[in-house]
Design a protein that fits this description.
By secondary structure, the protein is mainly α. Helices cover 85% and strands 0% of the residues. The protein is built from 6 helices and no strands. α3 packs antiparallel against α4, α3 packs antiparallel against α6 and α4 runs antiparallel to α5. The radius of gyration is 21 Å and the shape is elongated.
Length: 202
């Protein structure tokens, strides 16, 4: 390979790396704005926590073992997502597909449990319209659930992309952002479980 060709190749690689770094940085900025969104929802919940309008409070409504099961499922999905990321860096396509499939199933299980809890509360007459406390609770938890849904849809798209096209550079970049997003949701849920289900129902 001539020096000119080598120079052009290195220059192209550097440009691609810079582009990847800018994209990842931009995604970090997005996650920080999402942090602000959840922080405002947590603050609203803290303010309205005691505003039950004569109805039941967190201690009476929430099933802590049920919420703990949700937490364990989401923590496990974060672990399997990490295994998928490790497999991606090792260029193990089949393992990437397997671990993201496991992560997807666990994510669906978590979302199903969340919807089950919502359904139970509504059937018992404790919908988001019952009190300020329940409005803040449903808003906070459903916002997280909406993010989980987006993550699951993103996972489907990336699973198909990997299955059909392999681990191309652009695909690896998107999988990295997906992994960051999923771990972020896991961290948010840990705060949610602690503040809403443990401290709130104590």
């Amino acid at each position: 390979m001539s020096e000119v060709a080598l120079y052009k190749r290195l220059k192209r690689q550097n440009e691609q790396q810079e582009s990847d770094n800018k994209t990842i940085f931009g995604f970090w900025v997005y996650l920080m704005t999402d942090c602000l969104l959840f922080a405002s929802l947590f603050a609203t919940y803290a303010v309205l926590h005691g505003n039950t309008f004569g109805g039941s409070g967190a201690k009476d409504l929430f099933d802590q073992p049920f919420a703990l099961t949700e937490t364990l499922i989401l923590l496990t999905s974060s672990f399997t997502c990490g295994l998928a990321t490790l497999a991606m860096h090792r260029r193990r396509k089949d393992q990437v597909l397997f671990w993201f499939a496991v992560t997807f199933v666990l994510g669906v299980a978590f979302l199903a449990m969340e919807l089950t809890e919502f359904t139970r509360l509504v059937h018992e007459g404790n919908s988001w319209r019952r009190s300020g406390f329940l409005t803040s609770f449903f808003t906070l938890v459903s916002t997280h659930g909406l993010h989980i849904t987006v993550g699951l849809l993103w996972m489907i798209v990336m699973w198909i992309r990997v299955a059909q096209g392999g681990l191309k550079r652009s695909t690896v970049r998107r999988l990295t952002m997906l992994s960051m997003f999923w771990h972020f949701l896991d961290i948010v849920w840990i705060f949610m479980f602690t503040i809403v289900y443990l401290m709130g129902a104590a």
